[in-house]
Amino acid sequence: METVKVDLGERSYPIYIGADLLGETALIRRHIDGNQVAVITNEIVAPLYLEALRASLGGLSVDVFTLPDGEQHKNLQSFGSIMDFLIARRHNRTTTLIALGGGVVGDICGFVAATFQRGVNFLQVPTTLLAQVDSSVGGKTAVNHPQGKNLIGAFYQPQCVLADTSVLSSLGKREFSAGLAEVAKYGVIADAEFFAWIADAADRLIARDDQALSYAVRRSCEIKADVVARDERESGVRAILNFGHTFGHALESLTGYQALLHGEAVAIGMVMAADLSARVGWLSLDAAQRIKQLVARLGLPVCPPALSNADMLQAMGMDKKVLDGKLRLVLATRIGEVVIADDFAASELDATLSAGNSLCDG
Amino acid sequence: METVKVDLGERSYPIYIGADLLGETALIRRHIDGNQVAVITNEIVAPLYLEALRASLGGLSVDVFTLPDGEQHKNLQSFGSIMDFLIARRHNRTTTLIALGGGVVGDICGFVAATFQRGVNFLQVPTTLLAQVDSSVGGKTAVNHPQGKNLIGAFYQPQCVLADTSVLSSLGKREFSAGLAEVAKYGVIADAEFFAWIADAADRLIARDDQALSYAVRRSCEIKADVVARDERESGVRAILNFGHTFGHALESLTGYQALLHGEAVAIGMVMAADLSARVGWLSLDAAQRIKQLVARLGLPVCPPALSNADMLQAMGMDKKVLDGKLRLVLATRIGEVVIADDFAASELDATLSAGNSLCDG
User: Fold this and answer.
1) Of A194-198, B65-69, B230-234, which gets the smallest average pLDDT?
2) On chain A, which terminus has fewer CB atoms closer than 10 Å, C or N?
3) Any chain A CB within 8 A of the CB of B77?
């Protein structure tokens, strides 16, 4: 097992990474104060891992709330249902919530933890690669609004993150690749050497080689923890973690959160962001090409679905990085370095949005 | 104008107290960063004070959301409606919310501010005495759940509190007295001298004498700010601010949040807490009597409505101070000092709950 620390003063916490961590009773119990626990999970994950987690919670009073699967359930209605459940089961301020699942479960459970009785403790037990390398780390919690992703939420840190790499073997191919999109992102935004390693290790990653996976999760968490420690509430540098996400969120929103997995939307979004970065002359065409090639190499889509530029611009305008009406995007200057910029010409953004299928060309 | 500082490190903020502050443009604008503002108010307050506030916001883009009046609207549905409104009007992370109203408006607006796009700035402009001395200060934000008050919320501090004492002249008699209940509470929990001053100044307070009111608001805010600075998230001493509130919340909940104003429920709750404090032998009968007399003197009810002990105990059991199933109450040891206790006999609590109309006797 390896431990990455997220350094946030009194809100610091460890990320544990390794095989078979769900069975590490002592490790888990160390982060539970009271005798009440509520596990928030979903219908896909529960049959696979709930019993293993339960076995590590012996002696505690454990309630389980099971969500339906899917991003479309990450909304205020599910939030309200979990609140009703906790209140009906008389959970109080000393309860500990445990998010057992992917990003949807982690985000909504975290938001419930942030707001139930004005905040209770919670543990993140991410069961997808995407959640292990991204959404479970850093304290972003939220639900979606019909008009946009994560528009209602809070910054709220867990007591720990338990990234059990053994559970990744049960992921479907698409979902697994979606997680690799975020891994590739860390290379682009912060670490050219890691980017090169991912390209080199792509086959081993896709084959879910234990050692390659553990390293990918650890290095991703290290980069994320470092960025989050410098800017917990995203007043500045943390926005670089959103490379590809403004495009990606718009794609998800316009396709009803169903056609694309989040990681797939981010994958296409990174290709679009790289394309725009090259158009404005900040990124070499070669580097933009390398980003696209790695995305494709990891089994991810690179072509945006057919959407009008007007719809995309409208959807991107709802992004949280919009400042007083001005769209800001994370653009790459080289592999391993990005900037947050609003000084690109509207015509260049338009050209990227119009590129459409030409982005698909190798 | 007087200024009381709430000392919370990087989350510190001033409370401004004085007449005609709604017209202090420069003072208000100092706390607004972007050019977007959303005023959250209600149907009673808007006709009285919205234009005065608007006049101080010239040049900014101002949207207004008007809630119906009443505690029954402080719920997740109203929360969702305000979110819909902000998103429809394309507010973004740099927007500033302004809560113009009493405790309901302040609590719900604060919770929206805490969670819209994971947190935006907000200003508290409390228009009731209760909100000026209590709910607008200290960062407690929330909405109610059918099973209990403030069960869903966050600790989230405003940029400033603007307590314009001029607006108190328009309050109805009941609502004004309800605010005095919290003023009296500060005397009981922290300052015997202030308690004596309130008793002495009761006539002037009820007549809304400007000087007496300003002093009552300032001293109340000082005591609250001091407690909050020592324990922002209520892990300990902050709970003393809840003197009378566990009884009071149960009374409100069991009467559907409509029969009693919050301050009236707290008034009765303080009489019940004083009664229990005397029954367990921690408070002199004389002091309990003085508390009851002051409550009555301020135009507040002292008798609980007819409710069964079983219902009261069930409702009190939902209180956020319950720890692993054990009910904790704030009880007085003398005027000016309280303790947080769970070591009272169930039979004594039962006796207080059974006392009913005998509490009404002078």
Assistant:
1) B230-234
2) C
3) no
In chain A, which residues fall in CATH 3.40.50.1970?
A: 2-170
- Pick A87's closest partner by Cβ from B76, B80, B147: B147
Report whether pLDDT(B323) > 80: no
Which of B35, B84, B141 lies nearest to residue A324, judging by beta carbons?
B35
SS3 A96: strand
Task: State ipTM.
Answer: 0.89
The CATH code belonging to domain A173-360 is 1.20.1090.10
| CA–CA gap between residue A196 and residue A294 (Å, rounded) | 9
Indicate if the pLDDT at residue B358 is higher than 90. Answer: no
Beta bridge mates, A153:
A142
With an 8 Å Cβ cutoff, are B115 and A116 in contact?
no
Please identify, in words, the CATH class of the domain defined by B2-170: alpha beta
> Widest CA span of chain B, in angstroms?
62
Q: Evaluate if residue A257 carries a pLDDT over 90.
A: no
Question: Does the annotation count A91 as an active-site position?
Answer: no
- With an 8 Å Cβ cutoff, is B311 touching chain A? no
Q: Catalytic positions of B, please?
A: 118, 140, 182, 224, 234, 238, 242, 245, 249, 262
Q: Which pTM was predicted? A: 0.91
Mean pLDDT of A50-59: 96
Each residue of B168-225: pLDDT tens digit?
999 999 999 999 999 999 999 999 999 999 999 999 999 999 899 999 999 999 999 9
Interface test with B, best of A76, A89, A115, A316 (most B CBs within 10 A): A115
Q: By CA distance, what is A117's nearest residue in B? A: B151
Relative to beta strand A337-341, strand B96-101 is: unpaired
Contact (CB, 8 A) for A156 and A114 = yes
- Let me know if A232 is a catalytic residue: no
Q: Does the beta-carbon distance from A148 to B87 stay under 8 Å?
A: yes
Q: Which residues of chain B form CATH 1.20.1090.10?
A: 173-360
Query: Would you state the pLDDT for residue B324?
Result: 61
> Looking at residue B320, what is its pLDDT?
66
B152 — contact with chain A (CB < 8 Å)? yes
Is there a contact between A154 and B90 if contact means CB atoms under 8 Å apart? Answer: no
CB atoms within 10 A of CB B212: 19
| pLDDT tops 90 at residue A42 | yes
